[in-house]
Structures are given as structure tokens and as C-alpha cells.
Amino acid sequence: MNLPERGPGFVRARPGEATRAGTRQLVSALSRAAAYVEARHPGGSPLRIGDLSSPDGGRHPRHGSHRAGRDADVIFYATDAAGTPTRGRGWLAYDRFGAAREVDEGGRRGRVFFFDDARNWALVRSLLLDEEARVQWIFVSNGLKARLLRFAVAHEPERAAVTRAREVLHQPSRGNPHADHFHVRVACGLREQRLGCRDWGPDWPWLRHGASNDAADPARAWTDEALVEALMADAPAPNRAHTE
After folding, report:
1. pLDDT band per the 50, 70, 90 thresholds, residue 62
2. Structural domains of the chain, with CATH
């Protein structure tokens, strides 16, 4: 399934290129998430979605992954210094304070952009709570993950979203730290599993087919105090090596 050139709340970052093929599960999830953010935060610049996969799959010229229609790059929502939503420049790395500055080819410093905590969190929570999306990973740098979790702890009423974000948001152990974009990966769908698709990495309990929300999500049994303590802890996470 091809991602359209534009839709409610989103545009393609590389219009006209062929690398816009994804599973129906991924393309639909991105479309729903972009529309959700636009509805929650109207008036801002649309989400800019980068590479998915080539129409026939296989190796991607810019990525080690993006081979099977289950990966997508998404440029961060940004604001200006006054906090007004603005069209962020693509592939611009943000530091842990949420700031990124343009630098031209001659080394001259340009505009400063700021990570839009509210809209970026709305995107993440929409993807994570979308049961049809089955999002397995959202790769992002540790500094930006910390910003998102702090915002979520302060503003998010749905504890399951925060618990899932703590696990699914992840800086890869090798390669690109993803300080300049989200990399969204969805797990195999039930139909794909029947055709031989197999996931690597963690088997999140809320992604297991047939699992109820109460049984699948540990957040349901946590107190607010225990949840915040766990979120701010630097707990080890096994089997998370990845190279984009």
C-alpha cells in the first residue's frame, strides 16, 4: 500500500520518490496518528513523513532496514523560539534541551528550532494506543525520549500510553541515535504471521494476539507513584541492539 503524497495532517517529506510503500497496517496507523495530532493541535504545520519502503521491498538505498514495508521515518514537529508551531527542517538533530540550529554548507549558523513536546507526544501516544497499529519500536535519542516521558508524566491521563512509551521509545545501541527523526517500526500483523513474517526483539505483552488490555498492560496494576519512579529510572533493557 502506498502512502499518499498528502492527507489530513501530513505531507510526504520527499514527494515524488518511490519509497512510500508500506503495509496497510503501517500506512493506516501513520494516517490516523497525523489526523489525531491535527485535531488535538489545529493550525500547525503538517507532519512530514519520510522514507517507508520501495514498492518491491528489498534493500533501501538510504537505510539498512526499511525492507519489508514495516518501517517509516517521521520528522519531528517543531516550534520557533516563541513556541509557535513551525515547519521544521528535515534531518536536523535536536539536543537534550530540545533545541536544533540550522548550519549551512559554509558553516554559518541559521535559525533555531525547538522540539514540540506537546505535538510529538500526541503523535507517539496515538501510535502506541492504536491497537491496529501494533507499533513495536519508535527509535529516538535518549535525550528526546526523556523529554517526551517528562511531558507525558505531567500531562497524559492514560497510564498505558506512558508505560508503553517507556519501553517502545528507544535509542538504538549502534548507528544513528535518531536525534533528527522518529523511526517507527510495526510488528507483524496476524495475516503476515500466517505468511511467514517473524518479529525480532521483544514480544510486548500488549501486542500478543488475543491478549486483553488488563492482562497485557502492566500499567493497569501500578500506582501513580510506582509508575513515575519506574519511568525516571534508568532500567537495563535486554536484546535491544539495532542498526538502522
Report:
1. low
2. 6-232 (3.30.1380.10)
